[in-house]
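Usage

Read records sequentially. Each one opens with the input sequence:
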Amino acid sequence: MAEQASNGGPQAAQRNGQAEETERQTILVVDDEAGIRKGCRRVLEAEGYEVLLADTAEQGLDLLRARPTTDLVLADLKMPGLGGLELLAQAKQIAPETVCAVITAYATIETAVEATKRGAYDFLTKPFTPEELLRVVGKALERSRLLRERNRLQVERESRLLEIATEQSRMRTIINSMADGVLVCNADDELVLYNPAALHVLEHLPAGRRVYRLGEVLSSAKLFEMIGDASEGRKRLTQEIQMNGAGQWVLADVSPVVDERSSQFLGTVTVLRDISELKKVEQVKAQFVNMVAHELRSPLAAVDGYLSIMQQGLVTQPEKQTEIIGRSRDRIKALLDLVTDLLDVARMEAGTVLREIEPQAVAGVAGQVLELMEPVAEQRHVALEANIAEDLPRIEADKEEIVRLLNNLVSNAIKYNREGGKVTISAAQDGPYVKLTVSDTGIGISEDGLNRLFSEFFREKRPETAYITGTGLGLSIVKRIVDFYHGRITVDSQPGEGSTFTLWLPCKYEAVEVAA
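and closes with the structure output:
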């Protein structure tokens, strides 16, 4: 190679300027000829490169191991010991991003093919000029730069894909954990994401698919129409929708998704909140208002009418006055019973009921209730009968609650009985329970009524019950009391054949071993 070297020029100036800002590119020259090594160093350092020299392949590999970030290796093919082809193969393992070019005085097609297989990028044929050296070096370093940039972008891409996958996994975990149903649709009305809470509005989800046509899998036509309106109008819509299931309601909130930069419509997100329980509460409130309006207005209007008659002096006979006062007191007592029931239910729901739990004798409580209800039974010509077993174990309970429980059952048995009918109270031990039975010969309960019997404010509407007053809270209070003491209650009834309420309350007892 000629000994002349480039000492300046635009490329050198550019290299020198860049050296202040970035790290210099490194070139390793491996050749057994000292003149080649020195000539390459002089030319390349003048261009601003960092040059490493080695006179054997083994020494070159050691330098490469120490500096695996080397950008370019210029290696002679024919050297004592390890040859250039072997150096190429090992260099790719040590520094995969390093570009290799070969220097040879024996350039043949076979040599070129073999060197290319070993990873050589270009050739320099001896002797070569500085311009030829710089041309090959420039191309090889550009190749090295592109290779490193490609690898950097690939690593960055994989990192971003991992971040995206992690974010998607996090988002899916959050959505799947939500109690509200979530439906995500793209701009083509395709369902691309949903969570388990939304499955109650989806059907016919074919296995193996990740995207579904919304109209094919959405069970509610109303919800499908609402999502379509939000997509078309690009506006948020909120509406209560009754689903196909009986009594199932959802509050649907559909929001369009629009890219802020391009204003492109991307799809919709629908959030479904189950409001079935709220609807039931609203229904109960409506029943309560209707019941209060009727149960309060009717007796108050009657009492007001009686007092008006008395005030105007239209009734002067003492017997008639006594009758009117008695009727007024009956109406007021019904109002007091309603207020008492409402307060009991409110306290039970709030958990503020004060109970004095003590052993209670069932026979004594039943006798107290029968004595209390005797005048009412005589007035309606209903006979009361008791069949209480002796030596019953005591139950651990609050006496007032047990009295209220039996009083409600016996009161209903009398009110819904026939004139000349009978009400029977029975009590016996049944294993760890005291079994109480209240049966009557009254009008009975329909099958639909049995299903709703213990609901608050429920009163069966039949011609036979048209003139029977009540709040519809008595049996719900009975059920709450029985549940509190870990008991159970059943009802056996047929319309026109009477009803039997059977309840079991836990008691303290000792199992008796029967001798063989």
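Summary fields computed downstream for this record:
- The chain has four domains: 9-155, 178-274, 286-348, 355-506.
- Confidence is low (pLDDT under 50) at residues 1-22, 512-516.
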